[in-house]
Every structure is written in C-alpha cells, then in structure tokens.
Amino acid sequence: MEDQEVTTQDSTVADWTRALAESTGSPGGGAGTGLMLAVAASLTSMVAGYGDDDGGEPDRIRGRAQALRKEALDLADDDAAASKAFGAAFRLEPGKEREEAIRQASVEAAAASAVLGERAIDAIDDLAWLATKGNRALVADVVVAFGALRAAVAGARTNVSFDLGSLRSAGTGLDEVREQHPDLWASVEKLNAAMERIDELTAAIDHRAAPTDAA
User: Fold this and answer.
1) Residue 17 included in any domain
2) Are 205 and 136 in contact (CB under 8 A)?
3) What are phi and psi of 200, to 5 degrees?
4) I need a surface site. Which of 23, 63, 88, 196 has the fewest CB within 10 A?
C-alpha cells in the first residue's frame, strides 16, 4: 500500500501505523494526535454505553463521543495532508517563494491542530461526568480515556506552538507572530490549562482505578 493512500478511514490499524513508522512525516505527530482523540472518544462512548439507555445524560454523552470519534479520524487525515505541504515548503530552494510557502503551510498546520485541540477540550466535560457519575466498574477505562485525551491535548498544543514558531523560518519574529495570529497564540495557553485540568481529574479517581499502586 502506498503511503499517500493510507487513511484512517480506509486502512487497517496495521497499515496506518506502518505508514506512521516511516520517515515521511505523513502521517506524523499531528495525525497521531487525531488518532489519540479518536481513541479517547471511543472509550468515552463505550463507558457511557454502560449507563442508562432512556435518553439520559449517558445517552447524550455517547452520541457526542461517537460523532467526535468520526470527526477526529477526519482531522487526523486532514493533518496528514497538511504535513505534506509543510514538508514540501521546507524543501524549496531559499528565496521568497520558500518563505511564503513556509508561512502559508505553518499557519494552515497550526490552525488544523488548533481545531483538533478545541475538539479535545470539548470532550473533557463528558469524561469528567463519567468519572464521577458513570459506571464505577469502568473507572480504569475512564483513566485510560483521560490518558488518550491528554495525549491529544498535548499533541495539539505542541503542534500549534511548533507551527507558529516555524514562521521564524519565513523571517517573522515571535512578537509579530503573536500580533498576526492572536487566536492561535491564545489556543496554546488554553490547551496548557486543559492538560492541567485533565491531570486533576485523573488524580481524583486514580486511587480507584489502580488500588494496588495506591497501597
């Protein structure tokens, strides 16, 4: 299977991860971030499915999680495509064309990662609800879901920050980057705060998920 044909929708897990293991950058870390969000959403859906099925909050959480799983996979494939443009820009010969290509690719990549990060942030509340009000027998799955969600948030934060920083290769200073892209710049801090919240939520239930460790 050719790398350009590998997508989260049409490939096996084995084929997709084999492509991820290659030194091509497409798929790369951003696509992996999307996949981690899909894992978190899938586990959220599974845990919620053990709740009531009469249209209550578990049902609503499950519906949102199933929609997020599909969106996250689409975002992973979008990022893989953006990674190709990003790599192509840096392979151009030095000059104005290269600088403009880097600028455009960096901003587009940062924006794609920011969207993924926003979706991950939106998923925290549902998982937090399950952590305290969901089926207690599935607390370990909730902690694993939090781990996958944190990986998605951390990946999005790092990619947004790195992509904005890459604008320096196009001759733009960081102060100028902040002024030109305030929303993307602010998303980094939002994602940092989200990671802290996930850590707090995980710590609050970890003693139930891993009692032998606590002992």
Assistant:
1) no
2) no
3) -65, -45
4) 23
6 is a domain residue: no
> Is residue 74 one of the residues assigned to a domain?
yes
User: What are the residue ranges of helices labelled H in 49-95?
Assistant: 57-90
Question: Radius of gyration over alpha carbons of the chain, in Å?
Answer: 19
Count of domains for the chain: 1
Q: How confident is the model at residue 100 (pLDDT cuts 50, 70, 90)?
A: confident
Judged on CB neighbours under 10 Å (0-12, 13-18, 19+), 203 is exposed
Cα–Cα separations (whole angstroms), residue 180 to 163, 172, 175: 14, 10, 9
CA angle in degrees (0–180, nearest 5) for 41-42-45: 85
What CATH number is associated with residue 122? Answer: 1.20.120.680
What's the pTM value of the predicted model, to 2 decimals? 0.89
Mean pLDDT of the chain: 89
Instruction: Give the domain extent around 112.
Output: 26-206
> From CA 2, how far away is CA 5, in angstroms rounded?
5
Residue 201 counted as domain residue: yes
**pLDDT, tens only, 154-167:** 999 999 999 899 88
- Contact yes or no for 155/29 (Cβ under 8 A): yes
The structure tokens listed for 105 are 């690719």
